[in-house]
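Human: I would love a firmer grasp of how sequence relates to backbone shape in proteins. Take your time, and here it is.
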Amino acid sequence: MRRILIALALVSLIAVAQAKPAADAGSPVLKPTPTQAEAAVWSARFLTRFHYTPVPLDKAMSEKIFDNYLESLDGEKLFFTEADINRFGASRDKLDEAIYNKDLAAPFAIYNIYLQRVGERVAYARSLLAKGFDFSAQESYRFDRAKAPWPKDDAEIEDQWRQRIKNDWLRLKLTGKSDKEIRETLDKRYANYLDRVHQINSEDVFQTFMNAYATAIEPHTNYLGPRASENFDIAMKLSVEGIGAVLQRDNEYTAIREIVPGGPAAISGKIQVGDRILGVGQGANSALQDVIGWRLDDVVDKIRGPRDTVVRLEVLPADAGQDGKSFTIELVRKKVTTEAQAAKKSVIEVKDGEATRRIGVISLPTFYQDFEARRRGDRDYKSATRDVERLLGELKQERVDGVVVDLRNNGGGSLSEATDLTGLFIERGPVVQVRNAAGRVDVENSTSRTMAWDGPLAVVVNRVSASASEIFAAAIQDYGRGIIIGEPTFGKGTVQNLVDLDDVAQSESTSLGELKMTIAQFFRINGGSTQLRGVSPDISFPITIGAEEFGESSYNNALPWTSIPAARYQPLADLSAIVPQLITRHEQRTAQSRDWKNFREDLADARKLREEKTVSLNEAVRRKERDEQEAKRKARQAETDKVAAAEDSKDRKEKSDLQAKRGADADTAVEGAEGAVALQDDGLQADERSIREDVRREQARKDKPDFILIEAAHILADEIALVRADTKLASRVLPYSATFRVN
């Protein structure tokens, strides 16, 4: 059995089928396999006995599974009618028996009806395209139907679909597209839905059903089918054996979204972003298998393979038409590291009077670790802590004055990595307390001999920072080791273990998948919990999204907050005396910043939009709204251009390293940066846009100054300046550790 403790909040484990593609009435009837029935029973045995909060699989649980299952299939009430729900009701309290009796006919029957309904609704939608719509009528479309009742009959649901398609049409119409172009775009969109739903398989259905069961117990317990399990492992170890390319669907094609530097595809120099893969062959001079129209994950499986083996690809260049000339290339698979999710460093220079503070930044997207390589004793196993330690050494060589650890959007990862990473900043001592289902509390300690960085420290978090991120931020805060900056975090305080069902069942010939099962709860060293409440920053930035919308509090079956006795630990510093001054300086600085002014305005607009559940289908109303947004965008851009022109005469050496590289000031409103007005809605879906253009825009957004991070650097620079200038304040702020360095 795999005994790997993980602290993940936001790993996507939802089946492909839940993307809600469409099907026609001729969709194949999907049936469960004996292997899936076996996996369901073994999952139930473990979940009812070894979960942190075990719940019997009985009639009451069956009803919760039933509700979760329907929510996962049709949460927006777009496909099923009241009559369908009544029809399904016979199995509402019998899903426990279905699992224990290894008879999954009922959930599969529901899914088959779902596929049938999707096909019927999309067929109706396509039939509307020939007629067009009247956009002069005063009509609105309710796009948020999560809390709406089930439609009573086909007439009601068809009217909802009429409004939905009318809205799709209007979005494209407002971009200037002709009726002919709109009709072709939408018809192709819905036809692609039909193609994709025909590719849904039994594994997709089973994973959807089993996750309805797992999440009915607790939000962070999941079932991973064989394919999902493999992808989870890849995400944790940041490596895969393949050609080094990120793929995405492009209508009926599989296209190149990104080329990983140093991988076989990049080294060949022949494959470009936007190229489409027509065929795949295994081995030198092998026959090519046509993969046009295949599921994306099926194509990925064909291209991945053992290192040092050959894969052949037939490629249609991005700028070639469908009948253009393709070429064939042979690539030798290698181990490719997905560096996009690895730790990175940068330096921001902050002007402080006549002085310049150099602030190092460590950006960490996830707490990754190659578990298998570590178990094998591989000295060079991939590890977030190892990478950060190396980067801190490099920042020391670059003589930075302070370090900011950026954990924004970091959803968690390995619990041991969170513990070890904390040790880079505190030396030895407790980091987190873990309580298992029996009530036993173990203290996870850092065993680091020396601090990798003993200077001024700040940690930036937001609502998406979860689990392992919260462990690290909480420990840094409890020790007084650094300033926590940003938003309240996600609020996940549970620990998961990966259970390989093949090991449990001693299965050799089949793959039963894995359970990601909650087995413990973690607590801060001060005895508090991050569960529900998260980590509250010392210096708060505007809240981008409320806890009731996103976070642990948004789950109706999340574990409650509780506390335990504190661990024995010695704070390294007491920063409370300096925080009020830092807040004052932060507020004064951001009050003068256009970026922050725009940011707050946009957050207010976004909150207002989130409160709305309907949108007008009147062209004049929508065009007025669009024109107002465009006018606001142009006004901001004009202001940006004015500032940029004025700054051309300034000495660029006074700019931060990051700002100088990107040619913009921290106070410049930048399109694509946080707080900037979004580009106009083009009415298209991701696979309808040019991949090359989409990638270019994405890169442009990444290249813009990050004013949130720049402000965090200013705050840390303020701390350094205040402590250096006031020995009395320094004695109050740093009374506990003579070795704690403030340059």
Observations:
- The mean pLDDT is 89.
- The first strand starts at residue 5 and ends at 8.
- The CA atoms of residues 77 and 148 lie 7 Å apart.
- Residues 10-219 form one domain.
